[in-house]
């Protein structure tokens, strides 16, 4: 439903803050001690020039691209987007996902191409391949 992209972003932001992975937090340049609200996320996307001013206070959703912009904006954390065609080819990306969880550990956003719903991936397993999805 509406807001799932924002909630997935907020989950990732909470993880980044909890694990002190933010370059901005490490340098002291990010003074906000809480995870950004939907309104703050919308304002930031407008401020960056990604969205028009009418986006603020709207019920327009965000996707993987906007999540990447927001993570970079709020926490100076770079992101990588992988396009996986309708999940059919997800098995070829399982090694990369498993490596991410071994080395970084943060949740991963998976956008919904056919159902338009964001999913938060919290873990992955190579043997008997599976994803832990919230």
UniProtKB/TrEMBL annotation:
Keywords: Hydrolase. One of its GO terms (molecular function) is deUFMylase activity. It comes from Candidula unifasciata. Residues 1-128 form the UFSP1/2/DUB catalytic domain. Belongs to the peptidase C78 family. This is UFSP1/2/DUB catalytic domain-containing protein. The keyword Hydrolase applies. InterPro entries: UFSP1/2_DUB_cat (IPR012462). Pfam families: Peptidase_C78 (PF07910). It comes from the Eukaryota.
